[in-house]
Design goal:
The complex is a heterodimer of chains A (336) and B (127).
Chain A: H1 2-8, E1 12-16, E2 22-25, H2 27-33, H3 51-60, E3 67-73, E4 79-89, E5 92-102, H4 104-141, H5 146-176, E6 185-187, H6 189-206, E7 210-214, E8 223-225, H7 227-243, E9 250-258, E10 261-268, H8 289-294, H9 302-312, E11 317-322, E12 326-334
Parallel strand pairs in A: 7-9
Antiparallel strand pairs in A: 1-2, 1-5, 3-4, 4-5, 6-8, 9-10, 10-12, 11-12
Helix pairs in contact in A: 4-5, 5-9, 6-7, 7-9
Chain B: E1 4-8, H1 12-23, E2 28-32, H2 35-45, E3 49-52, H3 61-70, E4 79-83, H4 88-96, E5 101-104, H5 110-122
Parallel strand pairs in B: 1-2, 1-3, 3-4, 4-5
Helix pairs in contact in B: 1-5, 2-3
The chains are: A alpha+beta (336), B alpha/beta (127).
Chain lengths: 336, 127
């Protein structure tokens, strides 16, 4: 009975013994990998000239590493999620169970969704440009009274916000499709930060924020980054620090050099992140409840995008925060 | 002498706003709705700059750019791409085909676009 259940499961199952040789393999797994009975009692390394097994071997290694839901391609256009669980007895590994779960359909839906978002976002840009330019032309015409000007200016900044959301969505799609490639060139990190600060000068002034930029007395070595992408990370963090700050608050940006990496930090005296929402802060579309209250508009994508960019550079991003007191965001970029 | 700019853009409203903003700066504007009309007008009018959209009915903006750069009569006219496509590959393709710069429409104000155009018109070689 057990054998029948094992054989008839839709997921591919392979059990390896303590010598990492195949001791059981079900029908689905054989079909997925395109192998026959003779794989029993052998290691997958011996079969690594089979193209599909090669991919699996690449993931699991000789020793059948523990793996949790890793996506690999097994055959043309077929995507599987692989999980490998080691089984221990008295502290010794006695077997590994490998599950191959077909997620091709989910991947297709994901791709269609990404395409849909991408096409709609592009389509939105043209009317948005038209709205922006209409309002700009009205304002420039000089025929509006003060009251009308205030209203048109509000409409203009709403159009700008909407555009930011559209651009964020396009970035998210690119991340999801794995097309968010980084093109790294060696740059002076301090200069990049300075240019971004300059970009926000006016907003900082508007909110009467006391701003400080701390750098080390010695020169930082050049780092290899994608300046456009890392620039976006800094923009997103700085924008948050201003947006969720109080009038007359403080912001401090510091750069530090720590064993082979540059650490960027931005400390604000803003509303902070509620304790119970901290774990969700980097999820896409998530916005903290107090942030929504303070600024109803926002896409919840900025930090998601930032995290992906930093990680694509081999760095880390994290924060410390206390609700009502402020937040400090950190990220690192390896030098070599 | 009055500078002349050719706008190749299928969206009527967008064309209207750019044309208006340029005329206010004393620049002469010629408008084209699609690529074929654009190339034809470029040959006839010899503008000082071409503002080119990429997604056009009929031949694409890339094709227009390629033909302009292959035409000895037109190749020296600076082409500024003004599109809504903003993927890096698209930008790079445009620049590789010989465009002088690449702007994403919605990300810029008219003022910024006009300033960019004026800058190119005064010193196309230095730009």
């Amino acid at each position: 009975m057990f054998e029948k259940i094992f054989d008839n499961l839709k997921d591919g199952l392979i059990v390896f013994d303590k010598e990492n040789k195949v001791s059981l393999i079900n029908k689905s797994a054989k079909e997925i990998l395109g192998v026959k009975e003779k794989i029993l009692g052998k290691s997958i390394e011996e079969f690594s000239n089979f193209p599909k097994i090669q991919n699996l071997f690449f993931l699991l290694g000789k020793e059948i590493k523990e793996v949790f839901r890793k996506e690999i391609e097994l055959g043309e256009g077929l995507v599987f999620e692989v999980t490998s669980i080691p089984i221990f007895e008295e502290g010794k590994k006695i077997a590994s169970v490998v599950v191959l779960h077909d997620i091709t359909r989910e991947k297709t839906i994901e791709r269609l969704k990404s395409e849909f978002v991408s096409v709609s976002a592009h389509q939105l840009r043209t009317p948005l440009a038209s709205i922006k330019w209409s309002l700009e032309t009205l304002l420039k015409g000089g025929k509006l009274n003060e009251y009308q000007q205030t209203i048109v200016k509000k409409a203009f900044s709403s159009a700008e916000r909407m555009l930011t959301i559209v651009n964020d969505l396009l970035n998210v799609v690119k991340i999801e499709e794995g097309r968010y490639v980084c093109r790294k060139t060696p740059i002076n990190f301090e200069d990049l930060v300075k240019s971004k600060i300059k970009f926000f000068e006016e907003k900082i002034k508007e909110k009467q924020i006391q701003f400080e930029f701390r750098v080390l007395p010695k020169k930082l070595p050049k780092v290899k980054v994608d300046p456009e992408k890392i620039g976006l990370v800094i923009e997103n963090l700085l924008d948050n620090a201003i947006r969720y700050n109080l009038i007359g608050g403080t912001i401090t940006i510091s750069l530090d050099l720590k064993d082979n990496e540059i650490e960027f930090s931005i400390k604000d005296s803003g509303i902070g992140i509620p304790e119970n929402e901290k774990s969700n802060i980097f999820q896409k579309f998530f916005r903290a409840s107090n942030a929504i209250k303070k600024e109803p508009e926002g896409s919840g994508l900025g930090l998601f995008v930032a995290k992906n960019i930093v990680e694509a550079h081999g760095g880390k991003i994290w924060f410390e925060s206390e609700e009502g007191k402020g937040t400090t965001f950190y990220f690192t970029i390896p030098i070599k | 002498m009055k500078k002349k700019v050719l706008i190749i853009e299928d969206e009527k409203d967008l064309r209207f706003f750019i044309a208006k903003a340029l005329k206010e700066e004393g620049i002469e504007v010629i408008e084209a709705f699609d690529g074929e009309e654009g190339i034809e007008k470029a040959k006839k009018e010899k503008p000082d700059l071409i503002l080119l959209d990429l997604l056009l009915p009929g031949i694409s903006g890339y094709e227009v750019l390629t033909r302009i750069k292959k035409d000895p009569e037109l190749e020296t006219i600076p082409v500024l791409i003004l599109s809504n496509l903003g993927q890096r590959e698209e930008v790079e393709k445009g620049l590789k085909l010989g465009a002088i710069d690449y702007l994403i429409k919605a990300n810029f104000t008219l003022k910024e676009i006009v300033e960019r155009i004026k800058k190119i018109l005064t010193a196309p070689n230095k730009y």
